User: Fold this.
Amino acid sequence: YLETLNRNSIDDKGAVISSTVHYGNNVQNAYFTGDQMVYGDGMVSLDVAGHELTHGITYNTANLEYRWQSGALNESFSDIFAAMIDREDWLIGEDVGEIFGQDALRDMADPTQFGQPGHAKDWSTTCLDNQGVHINSGIFNKAYYEIATTIGKEKAEQIFYRTLIHYLQPTSSFLDTRNAVLQVTDELYPDEMAAVETGF
Assistant:
């Protein structure tokens, strides 16, 4: 975040980030509490840490409500920047070993591989998991993958970071965010507008 996006910690003011590791007994989870990062046994990897740190940045900027579309966006932005921090592939959590019987938590290139929709037409209607925040995040993850593999990760991460910190608000929807991404693309890389629209 500092070297690529010139951000100084999760609040951009140099906040100290506390982390608890080996939390609990065989806890296969990691999360941001609003005050610190918490990692269960084996859950510390580059992309998992990047995912949780991004929740801290979202909390300090757009503060996307953790339910329905805004919650799915909250999860998606954490996956997006996890994949930009661990740039080797489009998998999330592949380095923590088998978890929940899977080789990774999510695949941004093919969300359906781990039970997520990859298109808005396949939105999963559920009351579970705050109306499906970990399921439906695959929709925006797939859009980001399509955009980043077309215009390049370097441009894509700048566009989506600026969108998150300057243009989103707690109840932003998928459509709000798509429109904001297009606005930021026009501001930063107008020649890429068609490619970004196609990605969506």
Notes: The mean pLDDT is 93. The longest strand covers residues 18-23. DSSP finds seven helices and five strands in the chain.
